[in-house]
Write a structure and sequence with these properties.
- The protein has 10 helices and 12 strands.
C-alpha cells in the first residue's frame, strides 16, 4: 500500500521546500493543499481517515506547515479533535520549519557542551525558532536566558516554557544595550534566532565574552545575527568559540525533517511536535 502524505499549508502557496523534503523522504504520493485553516480542514481530515481501514491508516499521514506558527498550532488542535477512536493518522507539525530548525540547533550545541549544566542565551527568543530552542534547552536542564526587544514578550515566553517543562530554569531579558550586556554575562552558548536582517552582536562583542564556547546563528540573510559567523560554518573554531551558521545547521535540520516524515508511517497515532522532533534529531548527535 502506498504511503500518502497530506500537506496542509496555512499559506496561499504550499511550501516547495516542504514538498521537496517529503519526496526525498520516500513518500509515494504527496497531496498538497494551501490556504488551510480551522474552518476548512475537517473535510480533508475525514478524507484521510475514512478511506482506509484502521489497520492500514499508518500508511496515511498529515504534515502541517506554512509560515504562521500560531495558525499551524491551531490547525493541529482542530485536526486532533476531528480524530476519534481508531480513526486517526499521524501528524507532523513544523510550521515555518520551527521545530526541526530548533532541534537541529540544540543538537549541534550538544556535540560540544553538557546541556544539563550550561548557561545559554537565546537572542530573538520569543520568535518561532527561538522559543523552541529555549524550550528544548530547558528540557535538557540548561539555564536559559530568553532575550527579546519586548521584555513583556520575553516574560510571557518564559512562563509558557515553565508550563511545558517542569522545573525549567528560564529567565527573561530585554534586548536593549544594558539588557544584552547583562544577558551575555557568563554564558557558554548563544543561539541567535531573530528575524532576517537583524544583527544582535558584532564579532568583537561576542568574541569578547570570555565564557562563550558555542555560538549558533540561524539567520542566513545579511546582516547576520552574529557578525563574523558565516552561514556555511559547521563546527568551525573561531578563537575559543565553536561556530555554526544557518546552512551549517541546515543539513541536520533537513535530515531530521526527513526522518520525522518516515516515522509518521510506522504508526497512525503519532503527533510529532517540538519534544518528539528533538528526540529524532538527537539520533544524529
Amino acid at each position: 500500500m502506498q504511503k500518502i502524505l497530506i500537506q496542509l499549508d496555512t499559506d496561499s502557496i504550499c511550501s516547495s521546500f516542504d514538498r521537496v523534503v517529503a519526496v526525498d523522504a520516500g513518500v509515494d504520493q504527496l497531496l498538497s493543499y494551501a490556504n488551510i485553516n480551522v474552518d476548512n480542514v475537517e473535510a480533508l481530515v475525514h478524507g484521510a481517515i475514512f478511506t482506509r481501514s484502521p489497520e492500514n491508516l499508518h500508511n496515511t499521514a498529515i504534515f502541517i506547515g506554512g509560515s504562521d506558527v500560531n495558525a499551524g498550532e491551531e490547525l493541529l488542535k482542530k485536526v486532533s479533535k476531528t480524530f476519534f477512536g481508531p480513526m486517526q493518522v499521524s501528524v507532523l507539525l513544523d510550521s515555518n520549519g520551527s521545530n526541526t530548525t530548533a532541534a537541529a540547533a540544540v543538537v549541534s550545541a550538544s556535540r560540544h557542551l553538557d546541556l544539563g549544566n550550561v548557561d545559554a542565551l537565546i537572542l530573538g527568543g520569543t520568535g518561532p525558532v527561538g522559543r523552541r530552542c529555549a524550550q528544548i534547552l530547558a528540557s535538557q536542564g540548561a539555564r536559559v536566558r530568553v532575550a527579546s526587544r519586548s521584555l513583556l514578550k520575553a516574560q510571557e515566553a518564559c512562563q509558557k516554557i515553565k508550563q511545558l517543562v517542569e522545573g525549567s530554569k528560564v529567565c527573561p531579558y530585554e534586548s536593549t544595550e544594558e539588557g544584552i550586556a547583562a544577558a551575555v554575562d557568563g554564558v557558554e552558548l548563544i543561539i541567535a534566532a531573530g528575524a532576517a536582517g537583524v544583527q544582535f552582536l558584532t564579532a568583537d562583542e561576542w568574541q569578547a565574552i570570555d565564557t562563550l564556547k558555542v555560538a549558533i546563528d540561524l539567520n542566513a540573510v545579511p546582516p547576520l545575527g552574529l557578525e563574523g559567523i558565516d552561514a556555511i560554518d559547521k563546527g568551525v573554531q573561531k578563537g575559543n568559540v565553536v561556530c555554526y551558521g544557518a546552512v551549517g545547521v541546515g543539513g541536520l535540520k533537513i535530515k531530521t525533517h526527513k526522518e520525522a516524515i518516515k516515522q509518521l508511517f510506522t504508526s497512525n497515532t503519532f503527533t510529532l511536535k517540538t519534544t518528539e522532533i528533538y528526540k529524532i534529531a538527537s539520533q544524529f548527535a
